[in-house]
Automatic annotation (TrEMBL):
Residue ranges of every copy of the Glyoxal oxidase N-terminal domain listed in the record: 61-433
Every Galactose oxidase-like Early set domain range: 438-537
Protein name as annotated: Copper radical oxidase
Lineage, highest ranks first: Eukaryota, Fungi, Dikarya, Basidiomycota, Agaricomycotina
Pfam hit, one: Glyoxal_oxid_N
Signal peptide: 1-25
Length: 552
């Protein structure tokens, strides 16, 4: 058995030298970590090789221990959907598209996904065997059709679902759904109309929303921003993105809530990339060669910060469709995307094959939020790839501290002989600490309440300077269309015991600072990060949950 497995491994690596860490069976255009060992990926029916029940699968579970995937059954089409994890640890996928009948077939295996709600209950199987996605479109569906919506977990552990479109959009949002709704539903299932979304048509697909530590939601769409009070149901206009830069689909920049730190958890939003092109010309008048924006804009969401407005910084290069990953040491990895063009397929005047974008950016850049203005971007030690990750790519931090990279398909079907092919190769970007002797944590409780001191065992390599200690609680978010919705990093106050064998940290003060759900706790000592341990944060009940912990 052993030697057989060994031979198989050996021959695989000899035969497939360019396959870095396996290949997915679908395009990984949506990616979310659903357990310490499993990533769930979603796509559509467009000729992907992965099969289930005699037809193409469009959902796949990726086992991080073996770097192999298995198909998962779904009922409706998950293309350009969003999702997040609820306060009880259940992952929900929302929205999707109308199916297309595959070439040579008379029916599609997938149903209309625009009102889709798909439930992935917590699944203990490390390999994903027997983990299922539940769907019953007749009884469980959104209030309205939403293709290209965003969704984020809010303070009561439910999901806020933002915008989207009703119908196929070749480029601009031509059939906008300018409203919010929730899962589980609020307001007896009625949607809430959003003047902000109406104003930001036609570049308001996949709005970027952030749950702030006071429970309000900051939303970015097109070149505008707003503060939404979920409880009072009011929108307050916030400063627009400077210099007319547009940052949502189909002019995808990306955005993140920067790490929150005790004692005040002052929220700051960073928005990077996108395009300063006009949104008032037909897409055929735009070019795949139009330079992407190199602008990053940062704002502190306090009365003083709002008064001061956005501070502009410049990345080393422009990026359309970048993504940002919050690293456990508080730095922000900016990765993927293109130097020119736009998101979406075959709609500009001069697409490259089907791709509206060109000039893939192959080297990531690290942003240090705490460095002085002008000194925040660095590429020291960051590797360059030769795999383009353009439209329909997915990326996520994993519990090992590595970055999982997959997908890219700027094509309507599987294409293997274009400049920008359908990409099935999986890569991992391994930070320098992954090859070092690292701190290890053990003895975690499975669940912790807010505002509690928690003590765990720690083993620290002798060469690390323990005066430089960070403990981060991370939600890795849901990656779709150049955005990690619900992604969040909260630093925790922490202290080592005198003998350095015990680590005590204080959980977030309340469910608004960290919307309740499982998170991963990482410790970084002397810039060497441990693996992340999954812990349920809060009471673990089904949403909506009551306020917990102490107010700020
Ligand atoms: C999956 O289900 C099958 C059939 O019920 C069972 O035989 C198998 O042990 C299960 N596998 C795991 C990993 O739970
Ligand atoms: C949404 O799209 C469907 C076709 O899929 C169409 O029948 C319907 O009228 C559209 N609704 C709106 C509000 O645009
Ligand atoms: C945002 O875009 C709209 C539509 O193109 C434009 O009218 C408006 O002036 C822009 N706002 C800013 C602040 O650039
Ligand atoms: C638009 O963005 C491009 C690329 O970053 C830049 O060269 C140009 O100066 C910008 N134009 C304006 C009016 O800001
Ligand atoms: C946690 O421990 C610290 C240090 O002993 C103490 O100051 C703090 O009050 C404790 N916090 C809670 C929530 O118990
Ligand atoms: C979590 O809550 C959702 C929404 O009510 C529900 O569908 C799901 O079954 C719940 N999961 C668990 C594990 O309780």
């Amino acid at each position: 058995m052993l030697s057989l497995a060994f031979c198989r491994l050996l021959s695989l690596s000899l035969l497939l030298p360019s396959l870095l860490n396996g290949t997915t069976g679908i395009t990984a255009l949506e990616v979310i970590l659903v357990s310490p060992t499993l990533i769930l990926m979603m796509d559509r029916v467009s000729g992907d090789p992965l099969q289930i029940d005699g037809h193409q699968a469009w959902v796949e579970l990726w086992d991080l221990e073996t770097n192999t995937g298995i198909p998962v059954n779904a009922v409706t089409d998950t293309f350009c959907a969003s999702g997040a994890v609820l306060s009880n640890g259940t992952m929900v996928s929302l929205g999707g598209e109308t199916p297309e009948i595959p070439a040579g077939e008379t029916t599609a295996p997938d149903g209309d996904g625009r009102m889709g709600i798909r439930i992935f209950e917590p699944c203990a199987s490390p390999s994903g065997d027997n983990c299922t996605l539940f769907e019953d479109p007749a009884t469980l569906h959104l209030a309205v059709t939403r293709w290209y919506p965003s969704s984020l977990r809010i303070f009561d552990g439910s999901l806020m679902i933002i915008g989207g479109t009703n119908a196929s959009t070749p480029f601009y949002n031509v059939a906008p759904e300018n409203s919010f709704e929730f899962f589980p539903p609020k307001d007896n299932g009625q949607v809430r109309f959003s003047p902000f979304l109406e104003r930001t048509v036609p570049v308001n697909l996949f709005p970027r929303g952030f749950a702030l530590p006071d429970g309000k939601v900051f939303i970015v769409a097109n070149n505008e921003t707003v503060l939404y009070d979920v409880e009072a149901q009011t929108e307050t206009v916030m400063p627009p993105i400077p210099n007319g830069v547009r940052v949502t689909n189909p002019m995808d920049g990306t955005a993140t809530l920067l790490p929150l730190s005790p004692p005040d958890y002052v929220p700051e939003i960073l928005v990077c990339g996108g395009s300063n092109s006009t949104d008032t010309v037909p897409s055929a008048d735009l070019s795949s060669q139009d330079p992407a924006s190199d602008q990053c804009s940062r704002i502190t969401v306090t009365p003083e910060g709002i008064e001061k407005g956005w501070i502009v910084e410049r990345m080393p290069e422009g990026r359309m469709m970048p993504e940002m990953i919050l690293m456990p040491n508080g730095k922000v990895l900016i990765i993927n995307g293109a130097g020119t063009g736009y998101a979406a397929l075959h709609s500009v005047g001069d697409p490259i094959g089907n791709s509206n974008s060109d000039h893939p950016v192959f080297t990531p850049v690290l942003y240090d939020p705490n460095a002085a203005l002008g000194e925040r971007f660095s590429r020291e030690g960051l590797p360059t790839t030769d795999i383009a990750r353009l439209y329909h790519s997915g990326v996520t931090l994993t519990p090992s501290g590595s970055i999982f990279l997959a997908g890219s398909n700027p094509n309507p079907t599987v294409v293997e002989s274009a400049t920008f092919n359908t990409e099935f190769r999986v890569q991992f970007l391994n930070p320098p600490f992954t090859t070092r002797s690292r701190p290890t944590l053990s003895g975690f409780p499975e669940q912790v309440a807010f505002n509690q001191n928690v003590t765990v065992d720690i083993d620290i390599p002798g060469d690390l300077d323990t005066s430089n200690l960070q403990v981060a609680l991370i939600d890795m978010g849901f990656s779709s269309h150049a955005f990690h919705s619900s992604s969040r990093l909260v630093f925790l106050n922490a202290k080592l015991s005198a003998n350095k064998k015990l680590l005590t940290f204080t959980t977030p003060p309340n469910n608004r600072v960290y919307p309740p759900a499982p998170g991963y706790v990482f410790v970084t000592i002397d810039d060497v990060t441990s693996t992340g341990t999954r812990v349920m944060i809060g009471n673990g009940l089904s949403p909506p949950v009551a306020d917990q912990g102490v107010p700020l």
